[in-house]
Structure to design on (674 residues):
């Protein structure tokens, strides 16, 4: 079913909207959640919460892009769950690695002096990503938005592992320079 | 962690970048995720490595045998010993059921378990040592039990698909083709030969099958109607979905109707498979003439449940090159990836929700009673599931309660409901508002002694406790307790 039709079902308060969302994007959302959580039940819970969120948000909200709307909710819920679960101990999967990699993008210095919220930072990231070559941007987001493993990215783009790692490293270095240039301390 | 903020910010970048990051669509990504072997699946070995490994294993086992440590008998390691073992594995995917919960004040959506089979936990590629068919070459089983056919269950669409299968010239199904594309020419795959359209059974036989099909539909509808009636009756009384389902599955009338539907399903599918197999088994012979080996077919009753699930005449194996050749030569049938351990499949009809087996006359689960029989009067760690007979907020009431809890107006809600953070706050508030926390807390305080609580209550509708059998019975007799089961 077309996204517009699914959104229309939400607006009509037709519960078939949930079933249609599940049929079309259930696997997509689960894939995002599972990449973060590496636990079937936890991922399923986040996906279910995503549907609840969509049901309550639409209407009055009308997402321009249903897939990314759902994906964002799933990703954020999953990250939140991952952080809660790993407050004491880091879990499995690629998330710790991804976060470690991102640590390297953060300029050193007094982290409290210049506080910036995620929304402001997202604006700078949008600009940064817009200036990257398309493939580099895609690889970066596969890794840091979708939490894909290096192997998965390599398979998707037909690259070797080392090429993916090198590309990610270069992009992170560019991001670090950009954040330093903006005088941003997180 | 400072990277959390950066991670959050990455989560907020433009939609088009997120979409573009995957050249394929979200739907394709979901399909790929579904195809991916589950975590913990055994890695695939090359033939060379496998041969070397096997030689070493044979020498080792022979050496141990010579010194009397290993008898030359075995049970085919890696297989499930019992159906219960399999049932304990994850049941993946499924249709959404009980979406009415969304308007009924429940936060958690109930899901049907989806597969009508007992699925394996997801190994898609296995080592030779665990192969059911000892002595065979290394076979790649690229499907997963429980995945079955796209229709997945025996519904109207499956029956309809019988006439549609032969309409396409495409012999190798897309997902299997994708697996083959990545393989070397000499790798050996198992595959299902599916039956084509328009089996030529005479009209009397077809009519007989149709009668059996109708009987199944009737039995299934009776079961579903009863389940729905019971469910809404219990929900209207304020009961949680989990508890309602627990009680439904204990209802003798429902148990009977469910068994009747299952029997009718089995009778219909076995009859249909027998007719189709008799009509089309020559196809398997034609394929064997190409040097491809038959592993089993529908004449073997043990495999009928699996074959019926995938519309299969039989399961064969051959090299990638042979299969591609088959794809070019044979029309009128279709082939798809096969799953190992198909002998473990059973006819199991769809059911909804988490099934709790309760003994007659009390609300202790059978496994718990069995555990108490072995406990010699000692306390056991149990999970006490509480019932809820209080008021359940309907949708509008719930929404108002959530807004009140959050301290925001409807206008503010409408202005901000597209913000992800706000959505998350709403979901959290909704969970709290619908959790009936005060009620459950009061029940725990009243019914359980302090030293019986096994750990701090986390706010849900169940609590872990250490109870003797007598105390468990005493507790379960209370109306506020739905049932008690053995804790994990």
């Amino acid at each position: 079913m077309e996204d517009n039709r699914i959104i229309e079902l939400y607006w009509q308060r037709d519960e078939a909207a949930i079933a249609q969302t599940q049929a079309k994007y259930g696997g997509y959302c689960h894939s995002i959640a599972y990449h973060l959580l590496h636990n079937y039940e936890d991922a399923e819970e986040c996906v279910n919460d995503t549907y609840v969120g969509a049901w309550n948000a639409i209407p009055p909200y009308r997402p321009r892009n249903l897939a990314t709307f759902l994906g964002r909710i799933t990703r954020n819920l999953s990250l939140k769950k991952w952080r809660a679960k790993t407050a004491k101990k880091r879990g499995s999967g690629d998330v710790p690695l991804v976060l470690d990699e991102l640590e390297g993008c953060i300029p050193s210095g007094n982290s409290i002096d210049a506080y910036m919220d995620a929304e402001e930072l997202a604006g700078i990231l949008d600009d940064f990503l817009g200036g990257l070559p398309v493939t580099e941007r895609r690889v970066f987001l596969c890794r840091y938005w979708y939490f894909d493993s290096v192997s998965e990215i390599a398979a998707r783009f037909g690259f070797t592992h080392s090429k993916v790692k090198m590309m990610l490293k270069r992009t992170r270095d560019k991001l670090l320079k950009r954040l330093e240039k903006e005088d941003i301390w997180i | 962690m400072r990277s959390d903020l950066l991670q959050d910010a990455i989560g907020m970048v433009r939609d088009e970048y997120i979409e573009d990051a995957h050249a394929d669509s979200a739907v394709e990504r979901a399909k790929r995720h579904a195809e991916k072997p589950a975590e913990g699946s055994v890695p695939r070995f090359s033939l060379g490595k496998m041969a070397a490994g096997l030689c070493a294993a044979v020498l080792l086992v022979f050496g141990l045998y010579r010194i009397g440590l290993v008898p030359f008998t075995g049970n085919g390691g890696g297989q499930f010993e019992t159906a219960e073992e399999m049932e304990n594995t994850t049941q993946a995917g499924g249709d959404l059921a009980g979406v009415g919960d969304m308007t009924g004040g429940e936060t958690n959506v109930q899901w049907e378990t989806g597969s009508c089979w007992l699925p394996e936990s997801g190994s898609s590629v296995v080592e030779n040592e665990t192969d059911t068919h000892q002595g065979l070459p290394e076979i790649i089983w690229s499907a997963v039990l429980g995945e079955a056919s796209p229709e997945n269950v025996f519904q109207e669409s499956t029956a309809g698909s019988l006439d549609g299968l032969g309409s396409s010239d495409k012999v190798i199904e897309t997902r299997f083709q994708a697996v083959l594309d990545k393989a070397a020419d000499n790798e050996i795959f198992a595959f299902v030969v599916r039956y084509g359209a328009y089996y030529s059974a005479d009209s009397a036989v077809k009519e007989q099958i149709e009668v059996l099909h109708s009987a199944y539909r009737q039995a299934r509808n009776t079961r579903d109607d009863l389940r729905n009636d019971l469910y809404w009756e219990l929900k209207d009384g304020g009961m949680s979905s989990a508890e309602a389902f627990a009680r439904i599955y204990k209802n003798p009338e429902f148990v009977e109707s469910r068994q009747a539907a299952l029997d009718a399903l089995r009778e219909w599918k076995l009859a249909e498979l027998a007719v189709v197999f008799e009509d089309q088994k020559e196809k398997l012979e034609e394929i064997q003439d190409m040097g491809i080996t038959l592993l089993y077919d529908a004449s073997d009753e043990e495999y009928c449940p699996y074959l019926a699930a995938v519309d299969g005449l039989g399961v064969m194996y051959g090299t990638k090159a042979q299969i591609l050749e088959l794809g070019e030569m044979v029309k009128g049938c279709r082939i798809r990836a096969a799953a190992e351990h198909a002998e473990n499949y059973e006819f199991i009809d769809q059911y909804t929700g988490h099934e709790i087996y309760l003994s007659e006359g009390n609300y202790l689960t059978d496994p718990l009673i069995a555990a108490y029989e072995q406990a010699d009067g000692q306390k056991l760690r149990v999970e006490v599931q509480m019932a809820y007979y209080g008021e359940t907020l309907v949708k509008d009431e719930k929404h108002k309660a959530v807004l009140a809890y959050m301290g925001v107006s409807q206008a503010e809600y409408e202005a901000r409901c597209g913000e992800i953070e706000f959505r998350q706050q709403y979901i959290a508030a909704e969970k709290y508002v619908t959790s009936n926390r005060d009620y459950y807390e009061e029940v725990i305080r009243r019914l359980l002694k302090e030293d019986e609580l096994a750990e701090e209550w986390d706010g849900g509708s169940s609590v872990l406790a250490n109870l003797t059998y007598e105390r468990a019975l005493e507790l379960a007799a209370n109306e506020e307790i739905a049932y008690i089961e053995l804790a994990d």
In short: Residues 94 and 179 of chain A are 24 Å apart (CA to CA). The two ends of chain A are 43 Å apart (CA to CA).
